[in-house]
Amino acid sequence: MKDEAMKKLRGKMENCKYGVIVHGEGNINAGMVLVGEAPGSKEVELGRPFVGQAGKNLDEFLKIIELERKEIYITNVVKTRPYRINSKTGRKNNRPPNKEELMFFKGRLHEELKLIGPALVVTLGNTALRAVTEEGSIAISDVHGRPYEKEGMGFTVFPLYHPAAVIYNRALRPVYLDDLDELKTYIKK
Ligand code: URA
Questions:
Q1: What separation in Å is there between the alpha carbon of 6 and the centre of ligand 1?
Q2: I want to staple 80 with a disulfide (CB 3.0 to 4.6 A). Which of 18, 36, 131, 159 is the partner?
Q3: Residues near ligand 1 with C-beta < 6 Å?
Q4: Nearest atom of ligand 1 to the alpha carbon of 42
Q5: Percentage of residues in the chain with pLDDT exceeding 70?
Q6: What's the pLDDT tens digit per position in 126-153?
Q7: What is the rounded distance in angstroms from the CA atom of residue 85 to the CA atom of residue 82?
């Protein structure tokens, strides 16, 4: 039943004008879903979310909270790789998703979450936090590291910084590790 519904939902994203789709993966009956921003080049190459460097960060994260990939469901808000062509090198560089991409994929993300029906959604970074809570001006710096509830949402959100932000800003690392500790305590309750 759920498998069929997931297939149907995925079918809706076939031949997407925004590019190659990288679907979510994992346990569709999981109590916890992890939502990132968008796939990068490695994710598109392998057709899986959070692989390559991002995957290494995620594995470290999961080790700390003592969970395995197969126990949860991992997905992204935007399911295609947002990029711009570097005029000097001609190569693709990642960029943040634009409004149009966010509008297109947000509805699909909510369908995906509704179908899985998790108790907890862990958002990584502002894009995921805003898309999941549907609050355009909520800021990760204000709400990270503790459960966030909103009437009618149907699940609790646990906002975390995006692991990539922690790489660019080393000062965030102790904060991020504290937040992971909070998350671990929360899920073991
Ligand atoms: N890879 C993903 O799949 N999502 C991100 O947000 C970053 C890297």
A1: 21
A2: 18
A3: 36-40, 43, 49-50, 54, 76
A4: 1
A5: 100
A6: 999 999 999 999 999 999 999 999 999 9
A7: 10
